[in-house]
Write a structure and sequence with these properties.
The protein is about 35% helix and about 20% strand. It has 12 helices and 17 strands. It has helices spanning about 15-30, 40-50, 60-65, 80-90, 105-115, 130-140, 165, 175-190, 215-220, 225-230, 330-345, 350-370, and strands at about 5-10, 30-35, 55, 70, 90-95, 120, 145-155, 195-200, 205-210, 240, 245-255, 260-265, 280-285, 290-295, 300-305, 315-320, 375. Strands 16-15-14-13-7-12-11-8-17 form a 9-stranded mixed sheet. The chain has a 6-stranded parallel sheet with strand order 3-2-1-4-5-6, with helices on both faces. A two-stranded antiparallel ribbon has the order 9-10. It is globular and about 60 Å long.
């Protein structure tokens, strides 16, 4: 007997939709409708990926299209509003990171999803990533002892497209675009945060990006061709103002007792991670050693515990990158989301977790603007504890 496929609509037909989610949706589900405020993007995405219809208005799609799930792939500052509308219409939602960029929006979407009783998966999906699952097991075995402090993230040059996606005050800037990955990973590895102190500023007030029409025209190609190579040849001609802070530091106090810093910005030269020293993405230090993720190896462990299988007389025990299978969180999340709908299960990247990650980022920016250290009130299920946001 053929298993039925989940009928889907997509809100936001930009780069992430066409590069990552549409291929996974058409393989594992049934793409019914596309929606984008730019009509040409909605129509061309419909034609490229075989959807039945397209819309330029979210509410119209929710009202008319025969769908049961909606992928929220719009600009970061619009996620909460679009997800709230979808939930109120009784649709399950997969929400690209972040859940929200303001606490008002975060509470609104959280309450709407809870009231509707629909499934909600909030990206990024670190809970299923083999790399983070291995790192979590190493920490839980006590390999590096009690965790004291951590450092995560770096910066990069600014995106050269997507004014409303990355640069507006509503969108939130690099903390919500880049720092979200490290904050997601750290909360998965170390548990919930209890307070946050942020430092942030706009370091480069004006930039040039590629006009929006460039990607819209790119969608006219059949079959779809990767956007990144073509973007590298495009000339940024549109001058924009940086409304969101482009240079951020987030200081975290975790409920488990450790302290740390997450760096996210659009003001660092590209390519530094692969340069001298192969800088890791995350460093975690404990009473008996340290654990690094990324850099020259997938995972590097230093431990003083000679009874540990990760002990090395030379100092570092390294797990090479080739030991981990290639893993695409967009595809994994899409398949998991569909399985949860079909089998009536709760997604692993839970709504509570997505709320917690967003609150950390929102309050980091609030803290930077007010000069106050702020409590993080939300939480998620951690080591068997049941908590409420």
């Amino acid at each position: 007997m053929r298993e039925r496929k989940v009928k889907c609509g997509v809100v936001g037909c930009g780069v992430v939709a066409n590069e990552a989610y549409f291929p996974a949706i058409v393989e594992k589900g049934e793409l019914v409708a596309t929606c984008d405020k730019i009509e040409e993007r909605a129509r061309r995405s419909m034609e490229l990926w075989g959807a039945k219809e397209y819309y330029t208005d979210v509410d119209e799609m929710l009202r008319k299209a025969n769908i049961e799930a909606v992928f929220i792939l719009s600009g970061m500052g619009m996620h909460a509003d679009h997800a709230t509308r979808a939930a109120r219409a009784g649709k399950h939602v997969l929400i690209q990171k972040p859940l929200a960029t303001t606490m008002r929006d975060a509470r609104k979407v959280f309450n709407a999803i809870k009231k509707a009783g629909v499934k909600a998966l909030v990206e990024p999906n670190v809970q299923m990533n083999p790399l983070y699952l291995k790192a979590k097991s190493i920490l839980e075995e006590g390999t590096i002892g009690e965790v004291y402090w951590f450092r995560a993230g770096l910066g990069r040059g600014p995106p050269t497209w997507g004014e409303e996606t990355f640069f507006t005050r509503q969108a939130g800037g690099p903390l919500f675009d880049l720092g979200v990955y490290q904050i997601a990973a750290l909360t998965f590895l170390l548990g919930p945060a209890s307070s946050v102190t942020g430092m942030a500023k706009i370091s480069i007030p004006e930039r040039f990006i590629v006009p929006e029409e460039f990607f819209t025209e790119h969608l006219s190609q059949k079959p779809y061709e990767p956007f990144w190579k073509k973007l590298a040849t495009a000339k940024p001609t549109k001058r924009i103002k940086m409304e969101a802070e482009d240079n951020t530091f987030t200081l975290l106090s975790m409920r488990s007792g450790s302290l740390g810093c997450v760096i996210a910005n659009f003001v660092t030269p590209d390519g530094l991670r692969n340069g001298v020293g192969n800088m890791p993405d995350i460093e975690i230090y404990g009473s008996d050693g340290a654990l690094f993720l990324g850099g020259s190896a997938a995972i590097s462990v230093m431990t003083k515990r000679k009874d540990s299988k990760y002990y090395s007389p030379e100092g570092w025990y390294c797990i090479p990158k080739q030991d981990f299978p290639s893993w695409n969180y967009y595809r994994a999340s899409t398949e998991h989301f569909f399985n949860c709908i079909l089998n009536d299960e709760e997604p692993l990247p839970s709504l509570e977790w997505g709320m917690h990650v967003s609150e950390i980022m929102i309050k980091s920016i609030q803290s930077s603007r007010t000069g106050n250290r702020l409590r993080v009130l939300s939480s998620f299920k951690w080591k068997g504890e049941s908590v409420e946001c």
